[in-house]
Specification:
The chain folds into two domains: 128 residues, 3-Layer(aba) Sandwich (Rossmann fold); 77 residues, Jelly Rolls (Sandwich). Helix content is 25%, strand content 31%. The chain has six helices and 13 strands. Helix 3 links the parallel strand 3 and strand 4. With 217 residues, the chain is of the alpha/beta class.
C-alpha cells in the first residue's frame, strides 16, 4: 500500500516522529507550499511540493526546485493541504500522514480535522498534533497497543455505534455524539484493542511518544 507524509506550513513535528513513520512505510514526502520551509530546516528532501507557492521561502524554492517536483496550483477553492491530498490520490496513495497542520490558528486546525473526514472515503488520513496521533476508523479495527496506554475515542452523531474489547472502560454499542459524550483518556488493558464500529467514522487519539517507544503502528 502506497503511503505518504504531507508536511504543511504549521508547527512541524520533531524529526524523530517523521523518521518513525518513514520506517513504517510512509516513505514519500509531499510538502504543502510553505511546508517546504520546515523540510529545509529539518534536512528533509520533499518528493513533491504542491500549492499556490505563496508561502515557500526563496531559499527553500531554490534548494528544492531541481531535486523535487514543484507543482503550482493557483486555485483558491482548495487549501494547500487539500491540493496535496488530491495530488496523492491521483498518484495512487491510499494512506497519508498529515504533519505541520496545527499551530497558533484554531480555524486552520479545525479545518484540517474536517479534511480527515472529508477525504476519508478516498484516502485514509492520520494526523499528528504536538504529542498526539489522530486516526479515523470505521467498521472494525484492531489496534496494536501497550498495556496502560491512554487512548481517547470520539464520534460525531447518534447513529454511529461503537463497541470495544481491551479498554478499562468498555464501550458497549454506544454512540458518542460530538459535544454530548466521549471516551476521553480511556486505559488499555492488554496488548491490543478491538473496535467494532457501525455506520460512519470515529477518531482515535493516542500519544505518539508511546507509539514510538513501543513501536505501535
Amino acid at each position: 500500500m502506497k503511503k505518504c507524509i504531507i508536511l504543511a506550513n504549521g508547527k512541524p513535528p520533531k524529526k524523530n516522529i517523521i523518521s518513525f513513520f518513514q520506517r513504517n512505510g510512509f516513505n514519500k514526502l509531499i510538502c504543502a507550499d510553505g511546508g517546504a520551509n520546515s523540510a529545509l530546516r529539518m534536512g528533509l528532501v520533499p518528493d513533491a511540493i504542491v500549492g499556490d507557492l505563496d508561502s515557500i521561502s526563496p531559499a527553500a524554492l531554490n534548494e528544492f526546485k531541481s531535486i523535487s517536483k514543484v507543482i503550482r496550483l493557483k486555485r483558491q477553492n482548495d487549501t494547500d493541504v487539500e491540493k496535496c491530498l488530491k495530488y496523492a490520490i491521483s498518484k495512487g496513495y491510499k494512506e497519508a500522514l498529515l504533519v505541520g497542520v496545527t499551530g497558533n490558528r484554531l480555524d486552520h486546525t479545525f479545518c484540517n480535522l474536517g479534511i480527515v473526514l472529508k477525504f476519508f472515503p478516498k484516502i485514509n488520513i492520520s494526523l499528528i498534533a504536538e504529542n498526539s496521533c489522530l486516526k479515523p476508523y470505521n467498521r472494525k479495527a484492531e489496534l496494536k497497543t501497550y498495556k496502560g496506554e491512554t487512548i481517547s475515542v470520539y464520534g460525531f452523531d447518534r447513529k454511529t455505534k461503537i463497541s470495544s474489547v481491551g479498554l478499562k472502560f468498555p464501550l458497549k454499542n454506544i454512540s458518542l455524539p460530538f459535544g454530548e459524550k466521549e471516551s476521553t483518556s480511556n486505559i488499555v488493558t492488554s496488548d491490543k484493542v478491538e473496535l467494532k464500529i457501525s455506520n460512519v467514522v470515529f477518531f482515535v487519539i493516542r500519544n505518539v511518544k508511546i507509539m514510538i517507544k513501543h513501536d505501535l503502528f
